[in-house]
Amino acid sequence: MAFLIILITCFVIILATSQPCQTPDDFVAATSPGHIIIGGLFAIHEKMLSSEDSPRRPQIQECVGFEISVFLQTLAMIHSIEMINNSTLLSGVKLGYEIYDTCTEVTVAMAATLRFLSKFNCSRDTVEFKCDYSSYMPRVKAVIGSGYSEITMAVSRMLNLQLMPQVGFESTAEILSDKIHFPSFLRTVPSDFHQIKAMAHLIQKSGWNWIGIITTDDDYGQLALNTFIIQAEANNVCIAFKEVLPAFLSDNTIEVRINRTLKKIILEAQLLGVLKNVTFTDGWNSFHFDAHGDLNTGYDVVLWKEINGHMTVTKMAEYDLQNDVFIIPDQETKNEFRNLKQIQSKCSKECSPGQMKKTTRSQHICCYECENCPENHYINQTDMPHCLLCNNKTHWAPVRRTMCFEKEVEYLNWNDSLAILLLILSLLGIIFVLVVGIIFTRNLNTPVVKSSGGLRVCYVILLCHFLNFASTSFFIGEPQDFTCKTRQTMFGVSFTLCISCILTKSLKILLAFSFDPKLQKFLKCLYRPILIIFTCTGIQVVICTLWLIFAAPTVEVNVSLPRVIILECEEGSILAFGTMLGYIAILAFICFIFAFKGRKLPENYNEAKFITFGMLIYFIAWITFIPIYATTFGKYVPAVEIIVILISNYGILCCTFIPKCYVIICKQEINTKSAFLKMIYSYSSHSVSSIALSPASLDSMSGNVTMTNPSSSGKSATWQKSKDLQAQAFAHICRENATSVSKTLPRKRMSSI
Q1: Of 67, 8, 329, 368, nearest to 210 (Cα)?
Q2: Torsion sign over Cα 684, 686, 688, 692
Q3: Pick from 442, 80, 112: which is nearest to 264 by CA?
Q4: What pLDDT, on a 0 to 100 scale, did the predictor assign at position 514?
């Protein structure tokens, strides 16, 4: 034991001075003969002695900067080999070793590697060039080291020529797991991939996203930096700064190195294959190399804390590579681990759910402002880069929401206050129609009812008004295909029938009081009441039928509004809808023209004036309807059309029947045949200077009429003919009252119309 201490002391002195290499044997740091030689590469010195000038001779320089920790690793290797030799593990076989000091230089390590590859039992250190090294016997059978990944990669590429096993104890570069480029390399420490993954996991678990990186300028540091940046970006972690330090520093407090030594070496024919399959334990855990040559070990998570001016290192957890989890031994350590979250390492406060991160080009991605999600967008997590869009067809969301809400389905409901008001107005209209029908039925034989075209015509008009009022109910409630198709056609046909009946009445009035012979002749040919009604209404029926066949109205789900879904009737064809309304407007305009020409009839008979007012109300209502209907959206679109239907229907109904009902109820004295004929006589006396009415012509419905003028007996035959035609028209209007004329007027000769 004393000898061993003296040997180690001498070894330390020799290594500490590290004389320049004069011969190859001087290059060896430590050696021991044996049947099988194990090579070792250790960075016992920190660096080579540098000169001010660049090297002028190709020689190995003197090394300086003794590393006691690496020296202890070297002794651990020697001790392990001596323990194997002193055991029965390899009976009859002695292990030797050749250990070299790489001086933390690739060139020195490469020189040592050349000696490892030299031919076995050769008097000179020579390396033969061969295309196949299967039968080649190098002097060294396996290599331990070296420490730094940069040196290990260079050495491993040379050892790959002979597939010489190399076991690394500190080299953690991720690229060394690539068995295509480094097939003979094994290591007893995890790859940097797992280390970086554990670091990224720890940062994410602590809730940090704004960190700095300090690395070294060698291959190990650069590869680790690149991999960590990728992992950080994947976890939305930003790099505040990157600091690259020299790889080799004399201050040991900057680097913390974990020493993993070889536990057992078994010699067989295929050493590399055996090493890949070896399994060993440390008393508690079992270890083996995986397919990448990495040992299935993990990491210790340590916490550096300054207590009373002294830095202490405390183990907090173990990182399990296979399960990607942190194993925490006790509750106290778990609480300490949770306290890491209290350390704030963020550039900006996290955005709460309902807010998104907003960055500018000049800002770092981890430096941002929180902005509320706009309408119809949501976020249910924190620190999301963008808001998620709701399904605009079925859902919506107000500003700054964490979820979407289903859109409410809306239509003009029966419970809606406006719908109830419109229904009341429609019901009142129906009641008014029924009341008018009853009044006219009870006063069937009065001149007012007869002058209105008779009870049949009045019933038809009242029935049309009834259907118009009833059609408004199809605009209310949940739209169905039946109601969508029925409401427009029902209104269109019934309103057309109503206007057609009023058109015949206007034409009849114009025919009765027209003084133009040519116009009167034309109107006589045109006046065919039944044919006019059936033709006008039939055209509308054809229009509506074609509409229903080729482009029928259907139920449409309108999702264009942001918060609601509107169930509405899509008219199918705007052209057909416009044609239907336009055709009614044409008939109404013709009716208006005819009625306007007869507006100056006798006061008690002046139905044309009220027809004119009714048509004006219709035009005003529907001209107003077009822009309002085109610019209105939502569930109240049907209400607009209902209002227009009610206005036009009430206007025509009131202008047509209220004056007559007023006469029937309040002016019964003028609702007689005598009063009616007196009114006609008064109107005629103002139209011509002298009128002679023949009793025979009144008794007969179309008696001969003789026209005389007491003040102008010399009028021409043309004037006489015009008066005759006018008299015939008047006789046609008065046929219902002609039989009673002789009882109410004196029998004397008067001028006639």
Answers
A1: 368
A2: positive
A3: 80
A4: 59
CA distances from 76 to 8, 70, 155, 369 (A): 12, 10, 21, 56
**DSSP for residue 191:** -
Give the Å distances, CA to CA, from 47 to 20, 104, 116, 248, 252: 13, 6, 22, 8, 14
Picking from 65, 85, 74, 95, the residue whose alpha carbon sits closest to that of residue 29 is 74
Work out the average pLDDT over 82-105. Answer: 88
- Give first-to-last CA distance, the chain, whole Å: 161
User: One-letter amino acid identity for 732?
Assistant: H
Token reading at 140:
């060294």
Tokens of 209: 């996203």
The better pLDDT of the pair 41, 361 is held by: 41
User: What's at 320, amino acid-wise?
Assistant: D
Q: The whole model's pTM is what?
A: 0.53
Phi, psi of 475 (to 5 degrees): -90, -5
Structural Rg of the chain based on CA atoms? 57
Render pLDDT for 119-156 as a digit per residue (tens, 0 to 9): 877 666 677 777 777 778 888 889 998 888 888 999 99
Say which DSSP state 242 is in: E
Give the DSSP per-residue string, 413-443: -TT-HHHHHHHHHHHHHHHHHHHHHHHHHHT
Tell me the backbone φ, ψ of residue 100, rounded to 5 degrees. -120, 145
Q: How far is 158 from 96, CA to CA, in rounded Å? A: 22
Whose structure tokens read 């009616």?
Answer: 676
Identify the pLDDT of residue 719.
41
Q: How far apart are CA 32 and CA 537, in angstroms?
A: 123
Single-letter residue type at 416:
D
pLDDT tens digit sequence for 337-351: 777 777 777 788 888
Measured between alpha carbons, how far is 121 from 126 in angstroms, rounded to an integer?
11
Residue 552 has a pLDDT of: 93
**Strand duo 238-245 + 279-281: pairing:** unpaired
Residues 6+ apart with CB under 8 A from 678: none
Residues 45-55 have pLDDT tens digits of 887 776 555 55
Residue 45 burial class via C-beta count within 10 angstroms: exposed 0-12, middle 13-18, buried 19 and up? buried
How far is the C-alpha of 681 from the C-alpha of 243, rounded, in Å?
119
Please state, in angstroms and rounded to a whole number, the distance separating the CA atoms of residues 641 and 623: 12
- Whose CA is closest to 226, among 244, 249, 201? 244
Task: Sort strands 142-144 and 286-288 into parallel, antiparallel or unpaired.
Answer: unpaired
